[in-house]
Write a structure and sequence with these properties.
Length: 47
Amino acid sequence: MRVFVTGATGFVGKAIVKALLQRKHEVVGLVRDAKKANALEKSGVTL
């Protein structure tokens, strides 16, 4: 399933993204700070 997460680099967003990726979902994230987004991209999140 494809899931869109707003605030993907925030405290709650990180936990949600991690849980979704562990369950093999496709994650699309919205972030405010591009610098914080690098780790998400490396883990397979589409920004």
